[in-house]
Amino acid sequence: MPSSYAGQADSGSGSSEFNMLAFVVKRLLARIRTVDLVQVISCSNTGAVAAVGSVSVQVMTNQMTGSRTPVAHGTIYNVPYLRIQGGNAAVILDPVAGDIGMCGFCARDISAVKASKKPANPGSYRMFDWADGLYLGGFLNVVPTTYVQFDGAGAINMVAPTTISMTVGAHNITINSTGVHIDGKIFLTHQHTGVTTGGGNSGGVL
Q1: Could you read off the pLDDT of 68-94 as tens digits, one per residue?
Q2: HEC string for 122-168
Q3: CA pair distance 131, 135, nearest whole angstrom
Q4: Distances (CA, A) of 111 to 43, 102, 103, 130, 135
Q5: Would you state the pLDDT for residue 2?
């Protein structure tokens, strides 16, 4: 065997009929993809209001040859990612390059379903293939600086370094370093002109 060969066999793989059969079985089992930790290389979406997109990812655990030489994985393209969504209501939080997540690999070719977003026949006879992955984000990542936190005391905390914006019907509420803005007017400090101050209530309940 040439020394440059980077296969999976080692010095004992062909030493007996049992070892040869075991090697074949192991290689067949290795073709069955289950789940893997992956890192996002790129994402089709960047946080805008849009339909859920896809990511390009790289499997993080290297492949190994029979001589224990590591071989890095290539990029897997066009992997749909999970968005928390029901009907037309959703939490938009698109993956970014460098995120670590998980890819689960489907048992059959899902390319036709991805294209039509409807039930369809498998696009080919491939099974448990790298190309049929689905990305779920949020493993081994950094401490967030922008977040919504539901704590154990029943409080909901919203933290953003720059701006928090809410739109309800035709009204917009924005909170930033200059204060709370309601429909473009600064809450608490905004004053109306042409208003005469009253004398107050001297007789009790209004």
Answers
A1: 889 999 999 999 999 999 999 999 999
A2: CCCCCECCHHHEEEEECCCCCCCCCEEEECCCCCEEEECCCCEEEEE
A3: 12
A4: 18, 19, 16, 12, 15
A5: 47
What pTM was computed for the model? 0.78
By residue count, the chain amounts to: 206
Report the 10 Å Cβ neighbour count for 54.
18
Residue located via tokens 């939490």: 91
Instruction: Identify each DSSP E strand in 49-129 by its residue range.
Output: 54-59, 63-64, 70-71, 75-80, 85-86, 89-90, 100-105
Amino acid in position 8 = Q
What local confidence, expressed as pLDDT, does residue 25 receive? Answer: 82
Q: Domain-by-domain residue ranges, the chain?
A: 33-142, 143-193
Q: Which residue has the tokens 């709370």?
A: 180
- C-alpha span between 115 and 121 (Å, rounded): 12
CATH 2.40.50.230 fits 33-142, yes or no: yes
- Residue identified by tokens 């007996």 is 16
- Residue 31: pLDDT above 90? no
Identify the pLDDT of residue 65.
85
Among 66, 84, 68, which residue's Cα sits nearest to residue 10?
Answer: 66
- Segment (H or E) for 186: strand 185-186
